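Researcher: Structure for this, please.
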Amino acid sequence: MSKPFHYGGQAVIEGVMMRGRDRVAISVRQPDGKLSIITQPLAGVSRGRLRETPVARGLITLGETLILGTRALLHSAQIAAAEEGEKISPFVLGGTVAVSLGFAVALFFVVPLVATRYLIEPYINSSLLSVVLEGFIRIGIFIAYLRLIAFMPDIRRVFAYHGAEHKTVNAYEAGMPLEVESVRNYPTAHVRCGTSFLVIVLVIAIFLFALMDVLLGRPPLWLRTLSRIALIPVIGAVSYEIMKFGAVHAKNTAVRILLAPGLLLQSMTTREPDDSQIEAAISALNGVIDVEEAADPHTDTPPADDEELAPLAPS
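Model: Predicted structure, token format:
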């Protein structure tokens, strides 16, 4: 008997994407009020043994989140705007991912380092204290960024769909029927949320950057910048394992205390959804559950009914 799969996903423009064991489903509310639902099989790397290998699975998840998430956002934007459903160019997809990744690295890793170097380090002599203060600046920028984008009406709707996604997964994991009336009663927070993952990333970064600076002997700015960027995949992989451990042991009191900051911060990235948004999340989750339950449980090959997603780019 195969071990249970933890379903999850993300909010998109006027809809929700859900990832299953073998495929992904995207449910988007069209301008006419109807739901557009597509399901597609995942690329092989997302279903192979590496996906269950510690550390490696974290790297795969990062790449998967970037590629699938961006593709789902571009698809949902087309549907929500009632545009022709043309195939998304790999160049558009790759360029969008590259720009998004570059912006995130610059804002959350390079800017805090430069700010610490020129605004704080002239007044302190401790390398460790410098890294800790850099970490607090990074966390402050992250929180300020979330507060700023929350003023945008379109983002507030995305956050509501994010809440609908969490409610739906919470209801499913509680064994409740996937109906609006049942799902509505569940919380908008979830221990496996990407927001919680990012909180773990910000904390782990402080420890790894401090260790690196100690080993390198408080290196010059350019070397510290390179080390920050080079360590991002390592931080992501370690953070994924911590989040996965926390999700498995979420009922443990000590673990719940450690998870509390991430759950608290989700109040900034989720909103209470309306019934139509919950309906979109339910249809996305059903989109992967129905197909996967119909497939042979003893094979790793999903039924081929749609176009296969492009292979993941290296993370």
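Researcher: Any notable elements?
Model: Residues 298-315 have pLDDT under 50 and may be disordered. The chain has nine helices and four strands.
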